[in-house]
Description:
The complex is a heterodimer of chains A (352) and B (188).
Chain A: E1 13-18, H1 34-50, E2 55-58, H2 71-81, E3 86-89, E4 92-93, H3 99-112, E5 117-122, H4 128-133, H5 140-156, E6 159-162, E7 170-174, E8 186-190, H6 194-203, E9 207-210, H7 216-232, E10 242-250, H8 254-273, H9 279-284, E11 293-295, H10 297-311, E12 315-319, H11 327-349
Parallel strand pairs in A: 1-2, 1-12, 2-3, 3-5, 4-5, 5-8, 8-9, 9-10, 10-11, 10-12
Antiparallel strand pairs in A: 6-7
Helix pairs in contact in A: 1-2, 1-11, 2-3, 3-5, 6-7, 10-11
Chain B: E1 2-7, H1 14-29, E2 34-39, H2 58-68, E3 72-78, H3 86-94, E4 104-111, H4 119-130, E5 134-135, E6 140-143, E7 147-148, E8 151-152, H5 155-186
Parallel strand pairs in B: 1-2, 1-3, 3-4, 4-5, 4-6
Antiparallel strand pairs in B: 7-8
GO molecular function (chain A): monooxygenase activity; oxidoreductase activity, acting on paired donors, with incorporation or reduction of molecular oxygen
Pfam families (chain A): Bac_luciferase
Domain Luciferase-like (chain A): 13-313
Amino acid sequence: MDKYHIDPSKGLEFGIYTLGDHLPDPRTGERISAEQRLHEIIEYAKIAEQAGVDFFSIGESHQEFFATQAHAVVLSAIAQATSKMRIGSSSTIISTSDPVRVYENFATLDLISKGRAEIIAGRASRVGLFDLLGYNLRDYEELFEEKFELLLKINEEEVVNWSGEYRAPLRNAKVLPRPVDGSLPIWRAVGGTPTSAIKAGYAGVPMFMAHLGGPATVFKRTIDAYREAARRNGFDPSELPVATAGFFYAADTTQQALSEYYPHINEGMKRTNGQGFPKQHFAQGADPHNIMNVGSPQEIIEKILYQHELFGHQRYIAQIDFGGVPFDKLQKNIEIIGTEIIPAIKKYTAKK
Amino acid sequence: MKIVGLSGSIMGTKTRTAMDYAIKTLTEKFPDAEVTLIDLADYDLQFSDGRNYLEYEGDTGYVTQTIMAADALIIGTPIFQASIPATLKNIFDLLPVDAFLDKVVSILVTAGSSKHYLIAEQQLKPILAYMKAQIVQTYVFIEEKDFHRKEIINDDVLFRIQRLVEDTVVLTETFTKIREAKEAEYGF
């Protein structure tokens, strides 16, 4: 795990991620400016670090209702505003980017942040960016596979010789600058299904698994499939970190958490995905065996520990800010995370 | 209540004739309902390529978004080669997996042979159920002999369409009320 800067003896890491969505607060119907949203994301990262959060990441989405299309630039501002916590992308859509440019950006980010940068590469769930950036949607899978492979190669080799179908060949190419430790942690972003988890396993790369709701045991199958694929291809799964990422919202009581958070998720998903989150499914999110971490601090602690026992993962990453959650509520959540949740989780998962 | 009538084929007239009657009944009996008829013959739709339904443009975007915004759907379909037409299947392929969650869907079938009676039962209903529709169980099956030159000439068919329309509205109202009551119980 050293290669990925993860020390399992310190217990489960706690991270925060944002998609960089820029949505109205459904309670007021108001939407803050993109400028304010970006500054709040940077501030969010600062208070997260002060609360003891281990990792903070930002995604790119090239469509209406998002503000962090240039996510590497925002991460660079966060690198300046913080000093300890690791920072990364969640995710970088490598399919529609040039891996050389992505690597240059993140290696630079690594130098600015003094060795804290990570890349999580994904395929995009919405595909408008294929038109915007000039790619053919029919190449959806192959574009990712080929460019992800190249990204990994650039990470491993200082001088790259490569040729492929979707980018001009590289001949004795030096991709500079190099990161602090010579290489960056590069994860593969995986939705809930085993198919791309298996691909991550075959490649022997860490897996960042995002999820909405549902029984945690269903996602256990995805993690098992990942580790099995890694083992079959000669990698040691115990050396490969797994991160899980999904909805998180803490309030004094479960009922209050559900009721404060639901309109943001439901209205936000309607706008970004065209379908709301069914209330019945959200209500089930409160179940101790549901993977959605919404509830009172104590319930969330128990859920995260249950998930840790089930998954044996190294990092849990909370998505709190989706759908125009106002900043004071984010502050309140960070306070609960810092004072109650992280201390309890570390206490029970650290190996002493 | 938003109700969309979907005439699922781009060839022939019988499904459209039956759908016209259903829409006429609907607007007469339930003037408060917001009714839209989509006859696929009037639109130029692309095949599904797997993208989110919001990302289709032109006619395809209009049709998918209109269907997704509906509370209820009355689907009219002919039977081609012992199955539903490809044009109708494409509509399902264009939509998300649980597109019909919290929607009521009813069916009206036109066919050249009585031997096709179970096709809606065996091929269309499983698709609707997979996509989470509340299905109006009884569908109207109309044969060639019930039509004459763009008119339905069998009173029994007209009565059955009237009942189908009424059942669609009643079930939509009922499910909406039940869902609202259930959601209120969650307390958030």
